[in-house]
């Protein structure tokens, strides 16, 4: 097949270009099975001990690596052990602890505002209803979904940059909007596998299916992936 000049292409002929909904669901489950077998220890990589610590860590992780977040949170969590501790201070008091996380001023502002909302409206506790969480400053549906699925709250399939990229390459969605991507993934996979499915796609995106040069040669589900949007120069 001729490759378009400098254009993303689909070049895995082993995966049919057109599938029935049932066939796509079977392939999605098979992909998840393959990833789970290869990464049985897949889990969230942010360090936390309480629901509030998880919420704050996820807020900090926006446009920042989990590794960097884990470096700053021990001192932050020691200084601010609960929502009232954050609520009593100003964002400028939080900023020095998170300065290396990127967008630290906006994040400090959102963390303090969220803590004040938790104290005023939720008794200082983190709600586990996704829509309620998403209304907090700086949270949104993705962050709310991540918090919920790891704390036993509402079921969700949160879509971050890795999940979005892999869902497209695997041919599970054609959408750019994260909310629409999530709906497509939820329609393909059983509800009880959404949490693990999210984590497996995140891990695979960080370790193999990189944004710029995916390592298709070592991918355990390469035979089930149409490689949509992947250039022929990807590692094969």
Q: Which terms summarize this structure?
A:
53% helix, mainly alpha, Endonuclease III, domain 1, disordered N terminus, single chain, 236 residues, Endonuclease Iii, domain 2
What does it look like?
This protein has 236 residues and is an all-alpha fold. It has 2 domains: 21-41 and 157-224, Orthogonal Bundle (Endonuclease Iii, domain 2); 51-151, Hypothetical protein, domain 2 (Endonuclease III, domain 1). Helices cover 53% and strands 0% of the residues. It has helices at 21-38, 51-60, 66-79, 83-87, 91-98, 104-122, 130-134, 140-151, 161-169, 178-188, 194-207. Helix 5 (91-98) crosses helix 6 (104-122) and helix 9 (161-169) packs across helix 11 (194-207). The longest helix is centred in the middle third of the chain and has 19 residues, at 104-122.
* Helix-strand pattern: HHHHHHHHHHH
The first-level CATH class name of the largest domain: Mainly Alpha
- Cα gyration radius (Å): 20 Å
- Inertia-based shape: elongated
Domains, number: 2
Second-tier CATH architecture of the largest domain: Orthogonal Bundle
The proportion of strand residues reads: under 5%
> Helical amount among residues, as a percent range?
40-55%
**How many strands appear in the DSSP assignment?**
0
The overall pLDDT average reads 91
């Amino acid at each position: 097949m001729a490759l378009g000049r400098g254009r993303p292409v689909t070049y895995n002929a082993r995966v049919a270009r057109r599938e029935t909904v049932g066939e796509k669901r079977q392939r999605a489950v098979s992909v998840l099975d393959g990833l789970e077998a290869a990464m049985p220890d897949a889990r969230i990589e942010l360090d936390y001990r309480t629901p509030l610590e998880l919420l704050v860590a996820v807020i900090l992780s926006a446009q920042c690596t989990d590794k960097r977040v884990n470096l700053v949170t021990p001192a932050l969590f020691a200084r601010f052990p609960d929502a009232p501790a954050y609520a009593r201070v100003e964002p400028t008091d939080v900023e020095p602890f998170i300065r290396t996380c990127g967008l630290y001023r906006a994040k400090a502002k959102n963390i303090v505002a969220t803590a004040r909302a938790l104290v005023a409206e939720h008794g200082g506790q983190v709600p586990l209803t996704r829509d309620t969480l998403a209304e907090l400053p700086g949270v949104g549906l993705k962050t709310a979904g991540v918090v919920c699925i790891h704390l036993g709250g509402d079921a969700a399939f949160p879509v971050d940059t890795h999940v979005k990229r892999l869902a497209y390459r695997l041919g599970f969605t054609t959408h750019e909007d994260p909310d629409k991507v999530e709906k497509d993934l939820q329609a393909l996979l059983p509800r009880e596998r959404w949490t693990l499915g999210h984590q497996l796609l995140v891990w695979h995106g960080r370790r193999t299916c990189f944004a710029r040069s995916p390592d298709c040669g070592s991918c355990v589900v390469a035979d089930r992936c149409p490689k949509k949007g992947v250039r022929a120069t990807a590692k094969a």
